[in-house]
Write a structure and sequence with these properties.
Number of domains: 3
CATH architecture of the largest domain: Up-down Bundle
Largest sheet: 4 strands, mixed
Radius of gyration: 21 Å
Number of strands: 10
Number of helices: 10
Oligomer: single chain
């Protein structure tokens, strides 16, 4: 069900060629890597994958041409195709790529030319690993609850606070950090900063162990002094920068969900055709056929919503928030159903650690949470539909 044909109304000829390039790269250079089944191996392999996607020029699609990107960059449809192709073979590779886009987009949107020249070309070629530091112990969906502060002190800001559930924590070369420069102003007092990963006062507080291994942890800011030119945009623009970044990239999360779901469907189909029970292939049983039919329909619908949202983002229309919320909510929930059915079709083998659908089962669950939970997306959708004319 994956491939450019289904989504042809939303993509261009260059995208179809990119899809095949990514699929081949994922099969030959990433799927052949040993599985990373623990935090340390995931941290090491993330760097290796960063080099692969950087050398292949995949990150360039997320960036403007003037700062190391492609002629059409940032190209959200290309980013979606890349994440879909990578996620089908390696959720870790998808995470590495996704974080390069997530950590660089605030700089693309709000950075000065000097900041863009400093940070973006190394991201483009895989020399610099990016991270996005918004979530805190008491601030997840409620971004206004951020407690990390950035206090102006002469020609510097001093950051204090803690971030949690941060991908690439401890190994990122820079973090886009959201902190309050005016705590009394609430969400209007948030600002964004590009902070060097080696900045004094910034440390890895704790490594976290997610269900599907990838570099995850808590970082702490303890009197972390950064120059004034680390700030992205003006003071108080952090909320707008952060939410606009998530709006723009949410469709790529949906694309990753489609990649994992597509792989699960392929595994389920192959197993149903090969496995015999009661003297005939599983594929001959009506209940199994119904499962396959529902899985394929869900995947097709998810891909159509995903690439429609990416097209809206590339066009810069005002509908991107609604379209991306629909895509992320539907695709991540549909992918969860598809992967679960793939485990059911695989039977006991699908519950064994290391089986492809077992890995997908662990990997798909966080997509319904990160970059905006399904429930938050549904609130966004409803608010658009119910607001007065």
């Amino acid at each position: 069900m994956s491939g450019p044909g289904t989504i042809s109304p939303f993509i261009e000829e260059r995208h179809a060629a990119l899809f095949e390039t990514v699929a081949q790269l994922a099969r030959t250079e990433i799927a052949t890597l040993p599985p990373a089944e623990d935090p340390e191996s995931a941290r090491a392999q993330a760097r290796e994958i960063l080099g692969i996607v950087g050398r292949a020029g995949l990150v360039r699609h997320a960036l403007p041409e003037a700062f190391g990107g492609t002629a059409d960059g940032p190209d959200l449809r290309a980013c979606c195709l890349i994440r879909e192709g990578l996620a089908a073979e390696s959720p870790l590779a998808d995470m590495v790529y996704g974080l390069q886009a997530l950590g660089s987009t605030p700089i693309v949107m709000a950075g000065t030319d000097e900041q863009k020249r400093r940070f973006l070309p190394p991201v483009a070629d895989g020399r610099a690993m990016a991270a996005f530091a918004m979530t805190e112990p008491e601030a997840g969906s409620d971004v206004a609850g951020i407690r990390t502060t950035a206090r102006r002190d002469g020609d510097s800001y001093v950051l204090d606070g803690q971030k949690t559930l941060i991908s690439n924590a401890g190994i990122a070369d820079f973090y886009v950090v959201f902190a309050s420069t005016d705590p009394a102003a609430g969400k209007k007092g948030l600002s964004a900063f590009a902070v060097d990963g080696a900045a004094p006062g910034l440390r890895l507080a704790r490594a976290l162990v997610p269900s599907a291994p990838h570099p995850l942890g808590e970082i702490a800011f303890e009197g972390c002094r950064v120059p004034l030119d680390a700030r992205l945009g003006a003071e108080g623009e952090g909320m707008r920068i952060g939410l606009s970044t998530l709006d723009r990239l949410r469709a790529t999360v949906a694309a990753a969900a489609c990649g994992m779901a597509g792989r699960a469907l392929r595994e389920a189909r192959a197993h149903a055709l090969a496995r015999r029970q009661f003297g005939k292939p599983l594929a001959d049983f009506q209940l199994v056929r119904a499962k396959i039919a529902r899985m394929a329909t869900d995947l097709t619908a998810a891909r159509l919503l995903t690439y429609r949202a990416a097209l809206e983002a590339d066009r810069g229309t005002h509908e991107v928030t609604l379209a991306s919320a629909m895509a992320k909510a539907f695709a991540s929930e549909a992918a969860q159903r598809i992967v679960d059915e793939a485990v059911q079709i695989a039977g006991g083998a699908g519950c064994l650690v290391g089986h492809p659908v077992e890995r997908l089962y662990r990997a798909i669950r966080p997509l319904r949470i990160y970059e905006g939970t399904t429930e938050i997306q549904e609130l966004v959708i409803a608010s658009h539909l119910l607001k007065g004319d």
